[in-house]
Design a protein that fits this description.
By secondary structure, the protein is mainly alpha-helical. It folds into two domains: about 60 residues, lambda repressor-like DNA-binding domains (434 Repressor (Amino-terminal Domain)); about 100 residues, no CATH class. The chain has nine helices and no strands. The radius of gyration is 22 Å and the shape is elongated.
């Protein structure tokens, strides 16, 4: 067994629920909850979904489906964003490829990857708009164009500094969503 019962027990206790309260809320027999938590049986299908819904967790997080932790891959994943310096929209393409290949094999990569890709899409749009507007203002001789150029440079610097900081945090064991979650285009 995958110690599913142990994980469910830990989450249940963190939520401050008794076995009886969990069983009642999930509409599952109390004895079923006891068997699951003692690893005497493994919850399947509807039972697992009902328990996870009450506990406010994903079934995939409990089951892990052979997932493993890989801090070095997550670190490389964060640093792959810097590819935008060499490849146009490399900050989206390279992380997307890395994410698609391993999102179901590495714990936490699915959420971290979606968060990173959403940020990179928004960043790319903002950067494109700022440089295009800068060029238009320069051509039309508007006086505010230097501000847009500094915004463009600031966005570039931000997308170099943030991935390095987040890669360092990840290598030290902090595996959570680090990028600001502005718009959720990828889930």
């Amino acid at each position: 067994m995958n110690e599913i019962g142990k994980k469910i027990r830990e989450v249940r206790k963190k939520k401050g629920l008794s076995q009886e309260e969990l069983a009642e809320s999930a509409k599952v027999n109390l004895r079923t909850i006891q068997r699951i938590e003692n690893d005497e049986s493994e919850p399947r299908g509807k039972t697992l979904n009902l328990i996870c819904e009450v506990l406010g967790i994903n079934a995939e997080d409990i089951l892990d489906y052979g997932k493993q932790t890989d801090k070095s891959y997550l670190t490389i994943f964060h640093l792959s964003v810097i590819a935008f310096l060499v490849i146009p929209v490399g900050n989206i393409i390279i992380p997307l490829i890395l994410w698609m290949n391993k999102k179901d094999k590495i714990i936490g990569l699915k959420k971290i990857g979606a968060n990173l890709l959403n940020f990179q899409i928004v960043w790319s749009i903002l950067t494109f708009v700022s440089i295009t507007t800068f060029a238009l203002f320069k051509i039309m001789h508007f006086g505010y164009y230097p501000i847009l150029f500094y915004l463009f440079i600031g966005l570039y610097a931000l997308n170099i500094i943030l991935p390095i900081i987040f890669a360092l945090k990840t290598s030290k064991g902090k595996t959570e969503n680090l990028y600001p979650n502005i718009i959720k285009l990828i889930k």
